[in-house]
Design goal:
The complex is a heterodimer of chains A (230) and B (456). Chain A is α/β, with parallel strands linked by helices. Chain A has 2 domains: 123 residues, Rossmann fold; 100 residues, Winged helix-like DNA-binding domain superfamily/Winged helix DNA-binding domain (Arc Repressor Mutant, subunit A, Orthogonal Bundle). Chain A is globular, with a radius of gyration of 18 Å. Chain B folds into 3 domains: 143 residues, Beta-Lactamase, CATH 3.30.450; 131 residues, Helix Hairpins; 147 residues, 2-Layer Sandwich (Heat Shock Protein 90), CATH 3.30.565. Chain B has 11 helices and 12 strands. In chain B, helix 4 packs parallel to helix 6 and helix 9 packs antiparallel against helix 11. The longest helix of chain B is centred in the N-terminal third of the chain and has 73 residues. Classes of the chains: A alpha/beta (230), B alpha+beta (456). At the A-B interface, helix 1 of A face helix 6, helix 7 and helix 8 of B.
Chain lengths: 230, 456
């Protein structure tokens, strides 16, 4: 059973989520403040963490920032709905995904599974020789789930890694938004959902333009994205 | 500097008025006695001069007399002296001007009293008859500059200098006065600007409050006001954050509980649980919108702006809305989309356009389309969104942008609106110093958003 750590100060919510996720097949532990949350997350006992932003003692961003110094534990952030700043900051400091609060429990379970599947691929891939892509100065190893640009680690989150992997596999070809959403985010593309654009924009920032200033990932309006080939 | 000019002009006006009053008072109360006093002393002088002339000639003859008269002429306010003999011939003096003094002779020779002819415009002429020891007689005629109300300025170089000196002194004094008054006002204004720009902890520097005048009182009042505004705004911001947290926490718990209930639901209860889920989602959306509205109304200063590709925003929204509309047998068509980039908050602009477009989709008739266009006219971006619905009564058109305003209660409930979309759109556009207007078309309603684009 996958062990999930919930760091949220709402005890009743924690109980309910534990009950729901328990039925869905997760082993859930709850912690109600930031400091204990960070300590727990660093023990290495957990497969992933659900982290609220508003926390007593240490807020969610600080917990994540401290955690990311040593740990790659997958983290889903619970942000205040409609607060784009929280979402952007969360993704920038290394959250793997975010869910606006109040959230749909089914959606939470689905995202947990998606992230766990990725990490499972990663750990199982350590032994095998996974797919490797070497284009345009970028070296990707799907087995180790590492991406480097000119030998520098890009520090991608798992979603960004999967997006880049998908785009590079199809370098020079347009990848539809619908496909990216289903393959990477593991959900159907819905209108007015901009999370794919958000992840792509973060990915662009981390990759930066080419030496000659040209953009690596281009948006093809109303279709999708393309990794341009020189 | 405007205040300085005003003080300066008022100061000059006050001085001019005072000088005028002084001159008027002097003229009306002092001039007459002064002239008669002058006449009396002048007549005494004449008697003295007359007897002196007699003695000088008796003792020293004509030569001595001539030099005496010469001395007389050089002294004081006397400008001309002529001695006539009894036949009105010039005995001593300048013959060239003698004729100007002859009018005094008939009167003066008829009496031993001194005679004075004073005329306002001409110099005064005085005469006295003289009798010498040799038996001859004559008339001593003297011309004086009479006293007159001498003008303070303009008559001479000294007058001009006096005038310039006065204006200069006034200018310097007024500058100092204006500086004394305006410096604290300017400081107060800076603080006001800072407060208006959203710097809620802006306070008047303590030095200003140490003065003992109305400006210090104003500064203290300003601080009291700023204090109050700060506490009001911070408490309001805290309130909206608290609402967000407090209302959403139970909602979040309810949603999770709902999912647990659904895990155990049977066919009978599942539709009801789904209904609860829908209502909970609607409640949540409404809370979100109220918060957005509150945030927009509390001040547009904390809105972060960056370059935005408005064309992309409009196309994106239209596309998403079209996707959504097709499910209801409606569509969204982009008629025109000019290239347009501006500086703004992309999320706010997106939500403004999205709210208007989705609203239009909601109200357009079935099997019709919503037309969206983006034009760049004279450097302004003009977004038009037209539906093909029943429109809005002219009297109600202004109220469309009021929060929770509902035109047709029954229809709205069916379509599940929150009554906040257009209100949010209006606040979001206002935060970009743009305008949003609604007007009826022949068939439908058109909403026009205008955003000024700073020229690069």
């Amino acid at each position: 059973m996958e062990k999930v750590l919930i760091i949220d100060d709402d005890e009743e919510l924690c109980e309910l989520v534990s009950e729901y996720l328990g039925v869905e097949g997760f082993d859930v532990s709850c912690v109600n403040d930031g400091e204990t949350g960070l300590d727990e997350a660093l023990t290495g006992k957990y497969d992933m963490a659900i982290l609220d932003v508003m926390l007593p003692k240490m807020n969610g961003f600080d917990v994540l920032r401290n955690l990311r110094e040593t740990s790659k534990l997958p983290v889903i952030m619970l942000t205040a709905r409609g607060d784009d700043m929280e979402r952007i900051v969360g993704l920038e400091i290394g959250a793997d995904d975010y869910l606006p609060k109040p959230f749909n429990a089914r959606e939470l379970a689905a995202r947990l599974r998606a992230i766990l599947r990725r990490t499972a691929e990663q750990s199982s891939g350590d032994n095998e020789t996974g797919e490797k892509i070497d284009t345009d100065g970028i070296l990707i190893s799907s087995a180790a789930r590492t991406a480097t640009l000119h030998e520098q680690d890009l520090g991608l989150t798992s979603v960004e890694f999967d997006l880049l992997f998908e785009l590079l596999k199809n370098a020079g070809k347009v990848v539809k938004k619908e496909d990216l959403s289903e393959n990477v985010l593991e959900r159907k593309l819905s209108p007015f959902d901009r999370s794919l654009d958000m992840h792509i924009s973060n990915l662009r920032k981390k990759l930066g333009p080419r030496g000659d200033g040209s953009e690596r990932i281009k948006t093809i309006r109303s279709v999708g994205y393309i990794y341009t080939v020189v | 500097m405007k205040l300085y000019l005003k003080i300066f002009l008022w100061f000059l006006a006050a001085i001019a008025l005072m000088v005028g009053v002084v001159i008027f008072v002097t003229r009306s109360f002092q001039t007459e006695p002064m002239v008669s006093r002058w006449q009396r002393s002048t007549k005494n002088h004449l008697i003295f001069y007359g007897s002196s002339v007699e003695q000088v000639r008796n003792l020293g003859g004509n030569a001595e007399l001539a030099s005496y008269l010469e001395k007389l002429r050089d002294a004081g306010s006397i400008s001309d002296v002529v001695l006539f003999d009894s036949d009105k011939h010039v005995l001593i003096g300048d013959p060239a001007i003698a004729h100007e003094l002859t009018p005094i002779i008939p009167e003066a020779s008829a009496t031993t009293e001194p005679i004075l002819i004073v005329n306002d415009s001409d110099p005064a002429i005085g005469g006295i008859s003289v009798k010498f020891a040799d038996g001859t007689s004559g008339v001593l005629a003297i011309r004086w500059e009479p006293p007159r109300g001498q003008s303070l300025f303009f008559d001479s170089l000294a007058g001009w200098l006096r005038f310039i000196g006065l204006v200069f002194t006034a200018a310097v004094l007024c500058y100092l006065l204006a500086a004394y008054l305006t410096t604290p006002i300017r400081k107060l204004r800076e603080v006001t600007h800072r407060l208006a720009a959203g710097e809620l902890d802006a306070r008047v520097p303590p030095r200003l409050k140490k003065r003992r005048d109305e400006i210090a009182d104003l500064s203290k009042d300003f601080d009291v006001m700023a204090e109050r505004i700060e506490s009001l705004i911070t408490s309001q911001q805290r309130l909206s954050r608290d609402i967000s947290h407090e209302l959403r926490s139970p909602l979040a718990r309810m949603n999770v509980a709902l999912e647990i209930a659904k895990q155990r639901a049977n066919e009978e209860t599942l539709p009801i649980l789904e209904r609860i889920e829908n209502e909970s989602a609607r409640l949540n959306e409404m809370i979100g919108r109220i918060l957005t509205l509150a945030r927009l109304e509390s001040g547009s200063n904390d809105i972060q702006k960056s370059p935005v590709n408005l064309t992309e925003v409009v196309k994106d929204v239209a596309e998403d809305a079209d996707f959504e509309a097709r499910g209801k047998g409606k569509s969204v068509v982009v008629l025109r989309a000019d290239e347009c980039r501006l500086t703004g908050n992309e999320n706010l602009l997106r939500s403004a356009v999205e709210n208007v477009v989705r609203n239009a989709v909601k109200y357009t008739d079935d099997n019709t389309s919503v037309a969206v266009s983006l034009e760049v006219v004279n450097g302004s971006a003009k977004i038009k969104i037209a539906d093909q619905g029943t429109g809005v009564p002219e009297s109600e058109i202004e109220k469309l942008f009021l929060p929770f305003y509902r035109l047709a209660e029954a229809r709205d409930r069916k379509s599940g609106g929150t009554g906040l979309g257009l209100a949010i759109a209006q606040r979001a556009i206002a935060a970009h110093k743009g305008s949003i207007k609604a007007r009826n078309l022949d068939h439908g309603l058109e909403i026009e958003i205008i955003l000024d684009r700073p020229k690069n």
